[in-house]
Amino acid sequence: VSKPFKVIGTRPIRHDGVDKVTGRAVYGNDVNLPGMAHGKVLRSPHAHARIKSIDTSAAEKLPGVYAVATGKDFPNLQDKIAELGEGMVNLAHLVTNCLARDKVYYKGHAVAAVAAQNAHIAEEALKLIKIEYEPLPSVTWVLDAMKPGAPILHDDLVTDELGKPGAKGTNIAKHLHFEMGDVKAGFAKADVVVEREFRLATVHQGYVEPHVSTALWNADGRITVWTVTQGSFTARQQTAELFQLPVSQVTVIPCEIGGGFGGKIRVYLEPVAALLSKKSGRPVKIQMSRADCFEGTGPTPGAYVRVKMGATKDGKLVAGEAWLAYDAGAYPAGIIGPGCMCVFSCYEIPNAVVDGYDVVLNKPQTSAYRAPGATQAAFAAEQVVDEIAEKLKIDPIEFRLKNAVKQGSRRVDGPVYPKIGFIETLEAAKNSPHYQSKLEGKNRGRGVAAGFWFNAGLKSCVSASVNADGSVNLLEGSTDIGGSRAAIAMQLAEPLGIRAEDVVPRVVDTDSVGYTDVTGGSRVTFATGWAAYEAAQQIIRQMTHRAAELWECKPEEVKFEDGVFSKNGTSLGFKDMAAKLHTKGEPIVVHAAVEPKANATNGFGVHICDIEVDPDTGKTKILRYTTVQDAGKAVHPSYVEGQLQGGTVQGIGWALNEEYFYDDVGKMRNASYLDYRMPTALDLPMIDTIIVECTNPDHPYGVRGVGETPIVPPPAAVANAIYHAVGTRMTDCPMAPHKVWKAIEEAKK
Amino acid sequence: MPTLFIPHQLRELTGGRDQLPIPEGTLRQALRSLEADYPQFVAQVRVDDGLAPGLAASIDGNFASRGLLAKIGPTSEVHLLPAVGGG
Q: Would you tell me how many other CB atoms lie within 10 Å of the CB of residue A554?
């Protein structure tokens, strides 16, 4: 599409706005069905234990209890691998994560579940379930879990060396190794070498809405699930696989979702609610508490990262070495892959080696959290880059410009970049009012950091039908987390020459639209928007043919431009044509399915952060923050800005306060928002945003994904700012006040 | 000619070779062309009619869609990488 846009790039009011602000939108906990039972889940008090016995008899006898379920009620699934669109899943791990079978691997691991007349009876029943545990030694720090003699979680675990079996009797689930050039020779050429090690705590996605699912196992064997999920089709498939049913036996109805950020892709409650429904003959709803979310769902990995980089005195990076070990949690996870692939992804480094380890330990199985694995890697690499730039007395953005990847640059993991916008993003940051301003004052500092995320394409479907009034109903399979209904509707409206408001978008269930992959990977505006564009093209083709019938001419004689059908001086606008055709033939209905060939849209961001440190308390205050990112083409700039601001704020929380505190027996001690400190509006200034538009040639409108990259740079940007404020290099994340204070005091010695 | 880049960890299955020439066409055809000379390598990366679990193919800088039916052009670079999920 090369003409100036009329809809793309504008800021229409979101279609679901009224329902959201008036409380009419139906979220997961709003689902109430006749005869519905309430479910509760019993969770392990131990970080690691063998289950010797479970006695549910007393709970079953409690009046008002309809059903009790344990892991043994699920099919005993061995190591079967299922393809779930955005990744594989080991079904034996998934099913025992929903309800443990022989062992519990973390405090909070679900062990049994009850369905009862109400939530209070269900809670009482949980207390009557007798479980005999044999507690086992536990481990919650990644380097400890890798040591010889560490408690072993899975006796049958074998290290995966990119598909090849490696060591046995280990907690190392995966080892990855990437290498390019001659690292030893590269470091020999370097005039400046910096090596540091970094530690990051486990953090949670912090979505506002806890997990909640309702399931009905109908008498005909069909399962219907109402749930909050980032992917209704993947929830359908996971649920079907766990019961070994065909996917057509399961319908997932996605409710409105109060945040996901990667944490609502794996199923936790859906299969358990279905199991209880099967046993009780009633629909069953289960809702997690906040503590359940912290302790029973996947946070993002804690990590240890060591990075060494070398540069010549003219400011060119010549060598890099990275060693990363990430928490997998209770079961192998896989976030280490992108961590390794992102650690040097912003820079041309001719000689580099990266080793990564995915390590099981006694925490919940880790999940994605916006650009999974990239933030931990950037926390390390971007601080080392900052330190080298300082040693070479080169401005940190200039240093990044000297080394920035561009079209044709090769990443250490091998691929060569297509057209990307990192240099344009760095230039925009350099020229921004923020970077051009001076920061003055004691204990104040400015930090810069860059970040990269691949973004995804994957499969998307939409269906569209033209109404007699010229509006278009648009059915989509992508659950809407961040305003995507509007962005997708706009991509349909643009070719049709109608307003975004003339499109009525609906997120529908898995029986009502074609297969659509998860809302994740920054892919929905890119891929589902592309499907909407294709649907618009089909509508135009159908209506052109019908207009030819109407005007008694050949289809090629009918032109469609700027929302108007015309033929030799006769013309009708889209809406008038829709009305006319409604009375003369079949309805205009189309379906579009895409799986874009370009399955990565390569998002780059550059952040500028001004902070002030209180040296007496170590508290860091964010004074000013600017997020610059290449969006390719911003379909709805407000939602792009919202993604940039949201990701940045989550990254600042990760940087300054958020962490799972574990005690010495592996129990999380801060599983509430009172003690797990997320930033609020009072903690932060307005996050300024600059959208760079380096169009993506592989999308009809030039779109790149934007949702994940903004969380990558903040911890490094804040750390760099703290260093420039008080001269202490913060290598432990979060950089909570007590750590900053301690670092300042130690620097004085 | 298109080239398949062999991941460092799998080079012992290709006699140490880090790149192999492959035919233009599809990823399925490319792997089939290597079966005779590098059976262990192909067995490692291909399971049934797909890539092995946890593996993804990058073709010309983009993660490939369509599984083994992904198209390989006359000068394509193909890399086998860990699969990436997003948030």
A: 10
Residue type, A369: Y
> B interface mutation test: which of A176, A357, A413, A522 has the most B CBs within 10 A?
A413
Q: What is the pLDDT of residues B3-34, one digit of tens each?
A: 999 999 999 999 999 999 999 999 999 999 99
The answer to whether the CB atoms of A523 and B86 lie below 8 A apart is yes
DSSP code at position A668: B
Written as one string, the DSSP assignment of A445-473 is EEEEEEEEE------EEEEEEE-TTS-EE
Q: Does A530 touch chain B (CB under 8 A)?
A: no
Q: What are the DSSP calls for B11-76, one per residue?
A: GGGGTT-SEEE--SEEHHHHHHHHTTT-HHHHHHHEETTEEPTTEEEEETTEE--SGGG-EE-TT-
Q: Tell me the pLDDT tens digit for each residue of A229-288.
A: 999 999 999 999 999 999 999 999 999 999 999 999 999 999 999 999 999 999 999 999
Looking at the DSSP bridge assignments, the partners of residue A733 are A200
Helix (H, G, I), strand (E, B) or coil at A681: helix
Contacts of A657 (CB under 8 A, 6+ apart): A677, A678, A679, A734, A736
Of the candidates A262, A368, A595, the beta carbon closest to that of B65 is on A595
Q: Are A259 and A205 in contact (CB under 8 A)?
A: yes
Mind listing the pLDDT tens digit for each residue in B30-86? Answer: 999 999 999 999 999 999 899 998 899 999 988 888 889 999 999 999 999 998 876
Look up residue A519 and give its two tokens: 């809302």
Stretches where chain A sits below pLDDT 50 are: none
| Residue B64, pLDDT score | 87
Contact status, residue A527 vs residue A489, Cβ threshold 8 Å:
no
- Residues of B in Cβ contact (< 8 Å) with A163: 10, 44-45, 52, 54-55
DSSP character string of A120-156: HHHHHHHHH-EEEEEE-----SHHHHHSTTPPPS-TT
Instruction: Indicate if ipTM > 0.90.
Output: yes
Contacts of range B12-19, beta carbons closer than 8 Å, 24 or more positions apart? B13/A164, B13/B38, B13/B40, B13/B41, B13/B44, B14/B38, B14/B41
Out of B52, B63, B82, closest to residue A599 by CB: B63
Chain A, residues 145-164, CB within 8 A of chain B, namely 160-164
Contact A162 B79 (CB under 8 A): no
Q: What is the rounded CA–CA span in Å between residue A479 and residue A484?
A: 8
Question: Smallest Cα–Cα separation from A572: which of A547, A594, A593?
Answer: A547
Q: Coil, helix or strand for A194?
A: strand
CB contact (8 A) between residue B82 and residue A338: yes
Residue A121 half-sphere exposure toward CB, CA atoms < 13 A:
17
Sign of CA dihedral A274, A279, A285, A286: negative
Cβ within 8 Å, pair B61-A600: yes
- How far is residue A380 from each of residues A192, A304, A341, A387, A450, measured CA to CA in Å? 17, 9, 14, 11, 12
Nearest chain B Cα distance for residue A124, angstroms: 36
Q: Which of A690, A633, A603 is nearest to A418 (CA)?
A: A603
A116 contact partners, CB below 8 Å, separation of at least 6 = A37, A38, A39, A40, A62, A64, A65, A66, A122, A125
B86: closest CA of chain A, how far (Å): 4
Q: Which of B7, B9, B85 sits opposite A368 (nearest CB)?
A: B85
- Residues A537, A458, A95: CA angle, nearest 5 degrees: 140
Q: Confidence class of residue B87 from pLDDT cuts 50, 70 and 90?
A: confident
Assess contact for A344 and A381: CB atoms under 8 A: yes
Strand order from edge to edge, sheet including B62-63: B19-21, B3-5, B77-82, B55-59, B62-63
Encoded tokens for A632:
């390719």
pLDDT score, position A3: 72
Q: What are phi and psi of A286, to 5 degrees?
A: -125, 130
Q: Which two tokens stand for residue A219?
A: 């008498």
